[in-house]
Design brief:
By secondary structure, the protein is an alpha+beta fold. Helix content is 43%, strand content 18%.
Length: 343
């Protein structure tokens, strides 16, 4: 763990649960401001920058509050991106990943570049607290590992909420390794792990993805940061899924994602884009079977939960939510011919 001295910034009530839901675009822009000043910035300097229009913005485009700026600098510090000396935050030039990140920064852009996402991801996975509270759950062995190891070897982890005597609890468990689990019971744990690290990895940095299944809850798995569309692995897998003994094979989209996403480390977005690409090229061999939004979200208890459940469904060119696809056996031959043809 990071050793604190009296000159370093104060920790929160749970000192190792410092992670919070933040915009990594804002983290990048704040880091860019600090990198321009070799002497570093004081906490009040960062708050002043945040008040200047178009200098620093939250995910929803607002000027961040003092509390939000506090979370920004705490996260940059805890990730080892900043050091703290004489009441100033300074870029940690001794870390080679941080040096490369600073060189690759593109401040002002509304999104992170692939290089920025990869370097931030490497720092997040390398952090001892992030590993202990979250990433170790995915790994067959809890040795020191880097981002590439996590993506290549991480297993599926499911999470589900429970209410016991009006108290909320969240259970995270590895679906492949018995007793690899964690219970979240405090607000600090919810904010740091469920809405902090998980949100970073899934929404901001995109090296895990998540599928909702009613019986398991949210199922998370590591995915590669980039890749082609259509994804060759998914094209091959779809061809193999066709039953030659039947004229038509009906396949559940969510079950396909549950199998293919973790196996090939491919995101829901790339799987869905691949299926739509194949449908566009071979529409005579594929029928998309829609479901109603109400049925797809029948277990949702709020609009937010409904939107979360809907992200696990393929959405076609007409905006319909697709739960199943019906595939003709001739598609197998058509896809095999495509796979043998040079691009």
């Amino acid at each position: 763990m990071i050793k604190m001295t009296r000159n370093e910034p104060r920790s929160q009530s749970s000192p190792n649960l410092w992670m919070r839901s933040v915009s990594f675009v804002a983290l990048r822009d704040l880091l860019a401001f600090i990198a321009e000043r070799p002497e570093g910035l004081r906490a009040k300097d960062m708050e002043e920058l945040a008040r200047q229009e178009r200098k620093l913005r939250t995910r929803d485009g607002r000027i961040p509050s003092k509390t939000t700026v506090y979370h920004y600098r705490t996260i940059l510090y805890r990730l080892g991106i900043l050091t703290y000396h004489r009441r100033r935050y300074i870029v940690n030039q001794s870390n080679p990943i941080v040096r490369t990140l600073v060189q690759r920064l593109k401040p002002g852009s509304s999104t992170l570049s692939v290089h920025e996402r990869r370097l931030f991801s490497e720092l997040v996975v390398a952090n001892v607290d992030c590993r202990y509270y979250f990433f170790d759950l995915f790994m067959p062995k809890q040795d020191v590992y880097v981002l590439e190891d996590f993506i290549a070897h991480g297993r599926r982890v499911a999470w589900k909420s429970y209410t016991d005597s009006s108290r909320r609890m969240v259970h995270l468990r590895n679906l492949n390794i018995e007793k690899r689990e964690r219970w979240l019971q405090t607000e600090d744990e919810f904010q740091a792990i469920l809405y902090g690290i998980r949100y970073w990895a899934r929404n901001e940095l995109e090296f895990i993805d998540e599928l909702f299944l009613e019986d398991l809850g949210g199922v998370m798995f590591p995915v590669t940061l980039t890749g082609p569309v259509p994804a060759p692995e998914i094209t091959v897998a779809l061809a193999k899924a066709v039953d030659d003994s039947r004229e038509w094979t009906i396949l559940s989209v969510r079950k396909l994602v549950y199998m293919w996403g973790p196996r090939y480390h491919i995101s829901l977005k790339r799987i869905f884009q691949t299926l739509l690409s194949i449908y566009r090229d071979y529409s005579e061999y594929i029928v998309l079977i829609p479901t109603s939004e109400a049925f797809a979200t029948i277990t949702a208890t709020s609009p937010g939960a409904g939107n979360y459940q809907l992200r696990s469904y393929l959405r076609d060119f007409e905006g319909r939510y697709i739960s199943h696809i019906r595939v003709h056996r001739k598609l197998k031959e058509a896809l095999q011919w495509t796979m043998l043809t040079p691009a």
